[in-house]
Write a structure and sequence with these properties.
The protein is of the alpha+beta class. The chain folds into 3 domains: 314 residues, no CATH class; 102 residues, Glutaredoxin, CATH 3.40.30.10; 256 residues, Class I glutamine amidotransferase (GATase) domain (Rossmann fold, 3-Layer(aba) Sandwich), CATH 3.40.50.880. The chain contains 24 helices and 25 strands. The strands form 7 sheets. Strands 10-9-11-12-24-23-20-17 form an 8-stranded mixed β-sheet. A hairpin with a 1-residue loop joins strand 15 and strand 16. The longest helix has 32 residues. The radius of gyration is 34 Å and the shape is elongated.
């Protein structure tokens, strides 16, 4: 086999075809890479590889047309048939030679992601998975070419037939859609020959073992069929013609059957064993929050997808598979709007777009618009809308929790004292947690509404009236719950402070600063406090996980629990911190007269035991803590603490507010000089050098 490989590889090099194949592959890869990855700034190598798949339709038939057909034409196939080497080894030797010609430029492609990383962040795992998919696709096309070449002695016929077959496999997804939008027996059969979809399954951020096994098994089958094609001719003049022909037919059937069975078995395995999320942010992997929620399900949930299964959004479909596999109570049904156009009208009066979801239980249902599953932003430089985040899991988990819950907790946000408005990111978190919320002014109510699960008082800048303060105190002493934030103001607020004193807490007016390098961001006043262990801080106590509390005051917490009140400190500063009490005249972050030494408490939970039940008060001394800008600076960790608190207040077994997953990397930034240099080397010089070397070798050989 080694001798056959050397002979064929040498023939490719000396006949110019091999080097020309390399040159064309490098040229188009470089051309599209320069456009997609460098000029346009896309960090995904898969974009370039997907764009040049059409090359296989043209280059591989030319590369493979002579591999066996020429042997038959020159009658040198008789030497193969009588050689001491098995036919299988001959076929493998020829195939490996052809594959080597292809894999040389593919090996060069492996440098490309490293080169791109000079200009920004590149998803390396996804990039190399895409290169592997490209290689497997190409090697499969070569196996098609070598099989076709074994059928005829005409190189032209071999090239034309190979092109036709590869073109059909390339267009198979479209052919299936023309036959049926919903899928049927015919389309399922045709999908066996769909190379393009298997390639796509490997370049969308999931390492799909089923696609790898498909390509490898198809290559093995095609090489086996090539061997059988030659074997049949080998014994065609033998007295055993009939028996050997029957033997060949049986082995062919067995080979095809084994390939089908292997792929069927693998396709039936749970996706958690065959699909591996290789995206940096685990885009396709459901979180532990969702797994815990699904594990607690006791009633059936049906998720309707408004799309034919073959046309469904691949990211959403992958997410739904995870839900189905995680819980036997979850069932996914695809409803094709073209076949059943009135289905969605039973759930919504508005027109729902393709790929929208309907989550339904025996209690209620919830509609998830397709547009709500993706977070977008407008690029004002081009006035185009870009997808920045995927919220499919967040929307689904929230919807399932809503549809299976017995009631909806209600939160009231208190206004009338110049309070902050809760930012949209945090109100969205409430909605995902299936908590209803409403803004009220205490002047309009005799008391806090009875259905209040919790009240939020977000950094008032004016004092409460005595009447308003008494309403809050009465609510809390009747077993209520409250989340209160404070902000430094240069006025006295005795009525507001009376609410806190009911729980033995006092605000230490001023600004907390922390000079310990690990406890501030950019300036000592932008605190990165220590996160203490508690149910509310789950997931936030790991190393290098930060929350941010700018311009925080101090909270004086009794050193020992007051009668019937227990304290849990949630956020504290370091030993190097202090409280600047004279804010207006503070000259530095160093200790000055009147300043209070740390450590300081800036977040606390106080729970008061009552005759019946208990009252709970959460206090955070930074008004900026629950704002989107600050939250974004620490990757959503402030919001995680907020949702954990609200989940605890709502008595949820687990928080069902899953954060949006970042969908894409920032665009690469390559200078015009870098783009031109890359194009010069990869698009012009390397292909030109390969062609020149090929013609020089060919000319010298011809001259001899």
């Amino acid at each position: 086999m080694k001798a056959i490989f050397k002979r064929e590889f040498s023939a490719y090099i000396h006949s110019v075809v091999g080097l020309l194949f390399m040159a064309v592959t490098v040229f188009f890869f470089g051309l599209y890479g320069a456009v997609y990855n460098l000029a346009s700034g896309y960090p995904y190598v898969s974009y370039t590889l997907s764009a040049i798949l059409f090359l296989f339709l043209l280059t591989i038939p030319i590369l493979s047309m002579r591999i066996l057909a020429d042997e038959k034409k020159q009658k040198t196939d008789q030497l193969i048939l009588t050689a001491p080497v098995s036919v299988g080894k001959v076929v493998l030797g020829k195939y490996f030679a052809m594959a080597a010609i292809f894999l040389i430029p593919v090996a060069g492609m492996c440098i490309f992601p490293l080169f791109l990383s000079r200009f920004g962040t590149v998803p390396m795992a996804e990039s190399y998975a895409a290169i592997l998919a490209f290689a497997l696709y190409g090697l499969t096309c070569m196996a098609v070419g070598i099989l076709v070449s074994s059928f005829t002695e005409s190189q032209v016929i071999a090239a034309v037939l190979s092109f036709a077959i590869l073109f059909i496999t390339y267009m198979m997804q479209g052919i299936e859609s023309l036959i049926s939008q919903t899928g049927n027996v015919v389309t399922k059969f045709l999908s066996i020959f769909d190379f393009q979809t298997r390639f796509s399954d490997m370049v969308n951020g999931v390492f799909d073992i089923t696609s790898v096994i498909y390509f490898v098994s198809v290559i093995a089958l095609l090489l086996f069929l090539t061997t059988q094609s030659i074997q049949k001719r080998r014994y065609s003049v033998s007295v055993h013609n009939i028996s050997m022909g029957a033997y060949s037919s049986i082995t062919v059937v067995i080979g095809i059957a084994l390939t089908v069975v292997v792929n069927l078995i693998v396709s039936q395995l749970p996706t958690k064993y065959t699909s591996f999320d290789i995206t940096a942010n685990q885009l396709y992997t459901i979180t532990d929050q969702t797994k815990e929620m699904l594990g607690n399900l006791t009633e059936d949930v049906t998720i309707y997808v408004l799309s034919a299964e073959d046309n469904a959004d691949t990211t959403v479909a992958q997410t739904l598979k995870g839900y189905e596999e995680e819980s036997s109570h979850v069932k996914v049904e695809y409803i094709d709007p073209l076949v059943n156009p009135q289905f969605a009208s039973s759930y919504s009066t508005t027109n729902l777009s393709q790929n929208s979801l309907i989550v339904e239980t025996s209690k209620r249902y919830k509609v998830i618009s397709y547009s709500d599953m993706y977070e977008t932003e407008i690029d004002y430089s081009t006035y185009s809308q870009n997808v920045t985040g995927y919220d499919g899991e967040g929307q689904l988990t929230s919807a399932i929790a809503y549809c299976t819950s017995d009631d909806m907790p209600k939160v009231y946000m208190i206004t009338g004292h110049n309070e902050y408005t809760l930012d949209s990111g945090f109100t969205t978190a409430l909605e995902k947690e299936n908590i209803d919320y409403e803004t009220i002014s205490l002047m309009e109510y005799d008391a806090i509404p009875e259905d209040a699960e919790c009240i939020i008082i977000h950094a008032p800048e004016k004092d409460f009236s005595e009447d308003d303060a008494n309403k809050v105190i009465e609510y809390l002493n009747n077993g209520g719950k409250a989340l209160i934030t404070t902000e430094y103001v240069d006025i006295q607020m005795p009525n507001f402070e009376k609410i806190l004193s009911e729980f033995g807490l006092t605000i230490q007016s001023g600004y907390a600063v922390d000079t310990n390098a690990g406890n501030y961001y950019q300036a000592p006043i932008y605190l990165l406090p220590n996160v203490e262990y508690s149910d509310e801080t789950t997931g936030l106590t790991e190393s290098h996980t930060y929350v941010m509390a700018p311009y925080a005051e101090g909270i004086a917490v009794p050193d020992v629990d007051v009668e019937n009140i227990t304290y849990t400190k949630l956020l504290t500063t370091s030993e190097s911190s202090l409280l600047k009490t004279d804010v207006k005249n503070a000259a530095s972050f160093e200790k000055e007269e009147g300043d209070i030494d740390g450590p300081l408490c800036i977040g606390v939970k106080a729970e008061k035991t009552l005759d019946s039940g208990s009252a709970v008060l959460y206090v955070f001394s930074s008004a900026q803590f629950f704002t989107d800008n600050v939250d974004n600076a620490v990757s959503g960790n402030n919001k995680t603490l907020f949702t954990n608190i609200m989940s605890t207040i709502a008595s949820h077994d687990v928080s069902v507010s899953v954060p949006v997953k970042s969908y894409s990397y920032d665009n690469l930034t390559a200078s015009t000089k870098d783009v031109v240099l890359f194009e010069t080397v990869v698009v012009i010089l390397i292909p030109l050098a390969l062609i020149i070397i090929g013609f020089v070798i060919w000319f010298k050989r011809r001259k001899k």
